[in-house]
Design a protein that fits this description.
This protein is an alpha+beta fold and 124 residues long. 23% of the residues lie in helices and 17% in strands. The strands form two sheets. A four-stranded antiparallel sheet has the order 3-4-5-6, with no helix packed on it. Strands 1-2 form a two-stranded antiparallel ribbon. The structure holds zinc ion.
């Protein structure tokens, strides 16, 4: 047992889930391991520019070619799960790093922040 070094990734992940996926509850080292370095502005802009949004017929959600936080470029999100009673649906996905609202469904198709560059990537 003593010679068995656990993989750091597993340890970080374990620790992270123990904190209910709240990234600000964990150490900076774990945070870095889970969500990586923050994307720089130039790279983020490039990634934002490359996003292709395809509108689908209601009630289908739009198809987006990429899924990330438009504010910081982070790939990881945390879902609230359904916050309403079935059959109502109210789900939000927030960026793990900056808590930006990345997608939302409120008795509606899922809307993605990336669909609304003209509104500063705000869903509502
Ligand atoms: Zn973010």
């Amino acid at each position: 047992m003593i010679n068995q070094k656990p993989k750091s990734m597993n340890l970080h992940a374990k620790f992270f889930y123990k904190h209910f996926g709240e990234i600000n509850e964990v150490s900076r080292k774990t945070k870095k391991n889970i969500i990586g370095k923050k994307m720089n502005k130039r790279k983020l802009k490039k990634r934002l520019d490359a996003v292709v949004v395809t509108r689908n017929k209601y009630p289908n959600s739009a198809t987006i070619s990429d899924y990330f936080c438009p504010r910081c470029g982070c790939d990881s999100t945390k879902s609230t799960g359904n916050m309403a009673e079935y059959p109502e649906l109210y789900v939000q996905d927030h960026c793990l790093r900056c808590r930006f609202l990345v997608s939302e469904a409120d008795n509606s198709p899922t809307y993605f922040a990336l669909e609304f560059p003209e509104h500063g990537y705000a869903i509502n």
